[in-house]
Structures are given as structure tokens and as C-alpha cells.
Amino acid sequence: MSPALLVEQLLNGLQLGVMLFLMSAGLTLIFGVMGLINLAHGSFYMVGAFACAAIAAATGSFWAGLAASLAGAAAAGVLVEVAIIRRLYDRDHLDQVLATFALILIFSEGTRWLFGSFPLYLDIPPLLQWAATLPGGLQYPVYRLAVIGLGVAVALGLFLLISRTRLGMRIRAGENDREMIAALGVDIRRLNTIVFALGAALAGLAGATVGALQSVQVGMGEPVLILAFVVIVIGGIGSVRGALLGALLVGLVDTAGRFFLPRIAGLFVPPAEAGLVGSGIASMLIYVVMALILALRPKGLFASHA
Amino acid sequence: MAEPILGVSGLRKTFGALKVTDGVSLDLRPGEIHALIGPNGAGKSTLIHQICGSLAPDEGRVFFEGRDVTASTPAARARAGLGRTFQVSTVIPEFTALGHAMLAVQARQGTSFRFLRPVAGDRSLREPAMAALARVGLENRAHVPAAVLSHGERRRLEVALVLALGSKALLMDEPMAGMGSEGSRELTALLSELRREAPILMVEHDMDAVFALADRISVLVYGRIVATGTPDEIRRDPVVRQAYLGDEAS
Amino acid sequence: MPERSFVPSRGLVASLAVIALPLALALWASFAGETFYVTLATRIAILGLAATGLNLALGLGGLVSLGHAAFFGIGGYVAGIVASHAMEGTSVLGLPAISEMAYVWLLAAVAAGLFALVMGAISLRTSGVAFIMITLAFAQMIFYLAIAWPGYGGEDGLPITLRNGFFGLRTMRPMPFFLISFGALLFGLALFAVLKASRFGAALQAARQNGVRLASLGVEPFRIRLVAFVLSGMITALAGALYADLNRFVSPSMLSWHMSGELIVLVVLGGVGRLAGPLAGATLYVLLEHVLGGLTERWQFFLGLALLAVVLLGRGGLMSLLAPKGVRHG
Q: What keywords are annotated for this sequence in UniProt (chain B) (predicted)?
């Protein structure tokens, strides 16, 4: 196996990892600040992808689509938070699960109503439709490199936002003591809406960027959502740093599994089946890893709520 | 001197830089009430948590009836016979007072993994449970859901539960908290009688109750025990007067 | 402990009515020759049983499991695998493949029970949101295993050519199969009622409401919850085996997380912790699916709206409309 192939897999893993981080950051913030479990977070991913595909098709510009994905997902986030989610903060987790499950049904069927059942296709912008030659002679699509760069930039921005700004200070205060922050005169309702919309926008951005690599279709958010759950459970619920490290771990392990396991399976089953068996077992792998981590550390690797 | 039923040696616990428990050793002997007093923030509740097992100490050992129980869960300690009552009464909201006591009886019998026979009308649960309620004067409130019981009644229910449980020693975290003077008097009489069945290690702020009840008193200041002795010795102890009772007097 | 009166309570009457409904529907349909409605009643009974299993963990134990599809699917795959091996005349893991439901149910319950034991032992160390997510992740593990395993249909699922037998009854006919399913439902409901009233049930409900208090009495909440989780998974697996026989098909969709979500929906729609709640929820769900599904292809959109309304406005589900409850526990 050549080093170039390994580097390629490493980059693929990084790319999956940063996308998972965009999803998980919102989820974990929403849980940390509002104590809410949001199953419908994958719907914002889907909304972002559809908004991007629709606007890109209408204007011919991927970049306009990307902006639309941020705006569309954030708007959907604000709408959902104001209309429904804010009634759920004081409810138990069961009600939150049920209501956000209902939101998934509404978003999925609603999207199918608007766009039909067939997948949409979103092209990579011409600016990024070429392959770079990496040291070692590896040809690697520039778009994927750009996705990694975007993810890293967003992660940095998010950490700066949380550690350096007034909003970030309020988020941190909200995680520690909701009553205290209300007593300090911060409008907790507005803070909740902003955090929720921020999380939704990040998910929408992830959906749009991944939409150009895969097809844009109803239900696309769900596998990502479940992986994002795994990420934040591994990382420690409520911890953005945990989400980042968990996302990278999941991205790399999953990619490695998908790369190596079909080859290993090929040693045992006929080649025609090896791919399917291997990729299926690879899909399981990440859950096995999660179970092992939790068996040793039930609160995840970086629990922020001791 | 009788062998202590409960012993704590060299217990240490820090939260960050704060030494909340700083090398505490104490014991509880059969037939006595041992009161733990100290100013707010002295680490009394944290100490109780470590003794009952809901908080793990950084160092030190807890012995119960001569066995090292430092690594045991709270439930295992309760099964061994170390009963506890809570600072803030903690009840199972939908259970009645009798339901609580019956649960304690089945816990004592170790029969929580019986799946078939209904508990309603089960006399082997009901009779000991009613007896325990009667001892704290709650027999007429047996069918009231705990969520509806008054503060004082919940306090008494806490005591009824450790009675029904048949605990050999009791940890009580501020049993008098929030009781009116009438209630306090009744509870004081009950605890005074109870010590012969099960010695009591109690944290308490009500100094009248402490000096009326305690056979021994330990004074905890900043996570350390600064004095242990009979109520008279503690009253006269200059260190205690300065560190604690002096504050009260001023 | 409320003293028992001889006048049947409104709750009991409502429960009996809910339980009798699928039976009445099936009997009517059978006489009217409408076999489609017999199948609909069978679906109600089986989904009601699956949700009754979940109700043990969720309603009595307060364990919000978003992974019960794992048990439902394990039951389904056991039925499918045994049936397919029985057709071929081969054995399964050294066990004989006997195409007999009683045997299939036993295997299904054992398989699901073992998986629930492992899943519970790890996930019950956490609580709240983490528990929800971990149970979901365990179900995904099985979901992907079913897709990856090439021997039993993989992604395409596994057809069951002939339903498993039941002591010589003609299980391929709708009415006998309904009666078997309804019998299994009654068994599940009886088990739930007995467990709820037992010492174990008291400890389990105490664990839900105040685990610290239970521990202070010397009972480990973890062990109580684990046993409840295993029993719950076994009942849901029994329903899964029946569901596979009903459809004569089992596929990874039985294991999908949508299935787990739907099971929660059934329990909450009907009434959490209530004996007939899950069955009431299943009845409402299947009828809604039938009626709305006949009107619009997008019925799940309206289901979503209805669910939102139930969560935001109505508390306590259908059973609390039929019979508002007082205090439950002695």
C-alpha cells in the first residue's frame, strides 16, 4: 500500500470529521445551553442542501446557493425555535424526543412535497473543479480540500466566538447556570433563539457542502445526525471541544473502516459480496468503538458537565 | 469501651484547590448519638456523602461493623445496615407513605426481584410497614401520596423508612431542618429512644437538639475535626468556643 | 394503597374497551369477508404488543429507549431465519430449525434478551440524553449488521415463504393468525399488569421517580432497570417475530431508527405507563395511517402535525382522555 493512498484516506477521514463537527457543534451547544435533545437537527442539514441546490440551479451560482443554505437553515431554525422548541425546554426528554421526531416527519414530507421524491444534483463550483497534486504525487480533488479548510475555519471561528465574544460568554454562562444568566439581565429567550439558529446554520452549511459531493435528497440528514449523536456521546455531551475531537475520531475511524474492512472481508467471502459485507461491518465499527469507549468512560471523553 | 459500629479514618476530599474534607477520622459506638457540628461550609454534608457512599473520597477508609466499605455503593452500604436520612426530604412523589414503607420492607427482605405476587394486600409487607409508620405517628396518613405530605410529615417518613429497613446505624443529615418547635420536640424524643436500636451519626444545626440529644459531639471546621467530646467538654473547649460557638454567641 | 372497590373503575372499563377493539374489528371483518381488516387488526395487535414491551422500560422505568427497533428486528430476523432454514432443512447455529412459532418465540426472546443485557449493561450506566443516544446507536449497530450480512438478504430483506406454524393451526389464514397474535398481545398485557403490581414493579417505579431514594433503601436502581430493560426487549422481540410472520418478510427497516421512534410514538400517543396505553396508541396510529394514507400520500406530514399537537397541548395521551387518572401507586 502506497503512502499516497494512506494520505488520501486520511484526508477523506478529515473531511468527514469536519463535516460531522459542523453537525455536532450545533447539537452539543443546543444541549449544553438549553438542555434539549433535538432529533430534527438533521432536517436543517437537509434544508441547507435543498436551499443550496435550488438557488444554485436558479442563479447558476454555487456561492449564492451556499449563502442561501446558511440563510435558509438559520431561518428554519429561528422559525422552529420560536414556534415549537421553546415550549420544550422545560419538558422532559421524552416530550423533546417525540416533538422533534414529529418535526422530522414534517420536514421530510414537506420537502418531498415541494421538491418531489427524486434527488437533486448540485455541482461543485467551477473554481474548485480540479485536482491538486499533493507532495508524493497524489491527485486530490480541491473541493474536498476546500471543505476541510472550511471546517477548520468554522471550528476556529466557533472557538473564538465562544471564548472571546460577549455572545460566547453568555453561552458559557448559560451552560453553567441558566438562572444566574437570567438574573444578570441577559434575555435568555433571545440567547436560545440565537444559539439554535447558529446550530441550524452550521448544519445547513454542512448539508450544502456535502450535497455537492453526494446527491441532495430527503432523509439525507438522518445518517449524519445519528453519527453526530455518536460524536457528541463519545466527546461528552455539551462539550464543543469534545465534539471536535469526537468528530475527527469518528471521521477517521469510519473512513479507515470503509477502506480496510472490505479488503479484509475479501479474504473470507467471495469478492462480489466483500464490498457490501465490508462496508456494512465498517458502518457497525463506529458503534462498536462507541460502546467500548462508553463501557470505560460512561460520560464520554471530555464531559463538560461533571 | 464497645467496638465502634461505624468508623472513618483519614478521609480526604478536595474539589479543585478546596480541601472540603481534610483528614477526618471519627467513629460511632453502639447506643450513642454522635453529633457533627460546625459552621456553614465546614464540609459536614460532604462528609456524610462520603460515609454513605454517594461521593468517593480521595483518600481514607470507611468501616462498617469492622468491614471496609469504602468501595461499596450506597445501596450496598444500606443493605449492610447503614441507613440514612436526607437533608432535604427526598420522596417518591407518586408513592403513598405506606408505599414508601412497604418498599423499605421489601428492600429489607431482599425481595425486590419477585415478579408475580401483587404488593397490594400483601400482609408480609403491609404489617411491618404500618408498624414503622405507627412508630413515627404517621399511621393515619398512610394512604396519602408523599407529594402531598407536609414538610414535617416527610421528615417523620424518613425516620419511618430507616425503621422499616431495620438499619443498624443511622446517618442523619439535619433531621430537625425546617421543623417547628413542636415537631422538633417530638422528633427529639423519637431519636433519643431510637439510639438504643441504632446509633446515630447526625449533622445538625439546631444546638438545642444537639446538646439535648448527643452523647458525643465532634466539631468540624474547614474540613478538619477540631474537637470531639461530651456536650460538657465541647461547651468548655476554648478552641470550639473561639472557632464556632463564639461566633454563635456574638 | 387505594382500597379495592367492587365497582369497576373507569380506567378498567376504558382498558377493556381498548383491548376488545381489535378483536371486535377482526371478528366483524372475518364475518363480513373483509380479510384486509383482519390483517389491519392483526397489525394493531402486534404493534400494540411491541409498544407494550417498550412501555415496561419507558412507562414504568422511565427509560427513554430510542433503540427498541433492535429487539423488534431481532425477533423478526429470528422468525425469518428459522423459517428459511426450515424450508431448506438445515440447522441454525447448531440448533434445529423448527418452523413452529412457540419455538421461534423462545429463540427470539432469548436472542433479544441477551442483546438487551449487553446493551443495557452499557447504556444504563448513563442517563438522560446520553441514554437516548446510546440506545439509538446500539440499534444502528444491528441495523448495519443486517445490511452487511449477505446470507439473509442484506439490504433487500428476507422473504418468509410460509408462515411458521402454531400447533397445527392454519397460520397462513388471516383469522387464525390474528387470534395467535391477539393471544400474544393478551399475554404481553397480562405480564405488564402483573409486573407493574409486583414487588419488582414497585421497585422499578421507585427507580424512575427517585433512584437515589431507592438506593438509600439498599436496592440498586441499576439492577432493577437492567432486568426491566431485558424483559422489555424480550416482549418487543416476540412482537417482532409475529410481525415478520404477518408480512412474511423481514428487512432492515424493522431495525431502523424510525421504527424505534414509532414505538415511542405509540406509547406516548396512548399514554405512558398505562396498561392499555400502547395498544390505544397502536390502534390510533394504524387507523390514522389507513385513513390518512388513503387520502394523501403525504400522510406522515399530518401525522407529524398531530404528534406535535399531542406533545404541546394534550398531556397523558389517549388513555387519559378516556380515563383521567388519580394517584396510581400504593
A: ATP-binding, Nucleotide-binding
Q: Residue B248: is its pLDDT beyond 70?
A: no
pLDDT at residue B249, as a whole number = 44
CATH number of the domain where residue C94 is located = 1.10.3470
* Overall number of domains in chain C: 1
What pLDDT band is residue B29 in, cutting at 50, 70 and 90?
A: very high
pTM for the model stands at 0.91
Structure-model confidence comparison of residues A305 and A209, the more confident one: A209
* Subunit contact A291:C132, Cβ cutoff 8 A: no
If you measure CA to CA, which chain C residue comes closest to A299? C126
Portion 255-274 of C in contact with A at CB < 8 A: 257, 261, 264-265, 268, 272
Q: What domains does chain B contain, in order, with CATH numbers?
A: 6-249 (3.40.50.300)
Which residue of C lies nearest to A279 if distances are taken between CA atoms? C148
Share of chain C above pLDDT 90, in %: 65
Examine residue C4 and state whether it is found in any structural domain, yes or no. Answer: no
3-state secondary structure of A269: coil
Domain of residue C191, residue span: 10-322
Q: Is C3 contained in some domain?
A: no
* Pairs of residues, one from chain B and one from chain C, whose beta carbons lie less than 8 Å apart: 121
In this prediction, the answer to ipTM > 0.95 reads: no
